Amino acid sequence: MALLQLIDTVPVPFRSAPISQEEGAALFRATLALFSRWGVTDEQAAVLTDMPVRTYRRWKAEGPGRMSRDGMARLSNLMGIHKALRIIFQEPQRGYDWVKASNAAFEGDSALQVMLGGELTDIMRVRRYLDAERGGW
Known about the structure:
Layout: H1 21-38, H2 42-49, H3 53-62, H4 69-88, H5 92-98, H6 111-115, H7 120-133
């Protein structure tokens, strides 16, 4: 007979903990792999990460330097987009291709074109759209 364990169901108060530099470095490495799958150029990647192309290329070759809170928010949202696409599409390649496909939801622009607006809110717009499509928040 299996024994049941009591589970503490009292909600823990929310505490906003910033992403550590080590976690940010891991996000950056994951984002590099994602950019490769999406077929993003270094120039486009620099816009998405909001850094000069030279800095992006140096970080790509040597590892990231100290990241700002905004930079880590960008990387986090890009990973959220990747996660949503993996949930929506059974075949990963369809999700990778979706990023560059024309989309009526973005007035015919692709998600990548929207994100290349350069603002964090442009990336967040794509993420919110995908989260709504997959039934998340």
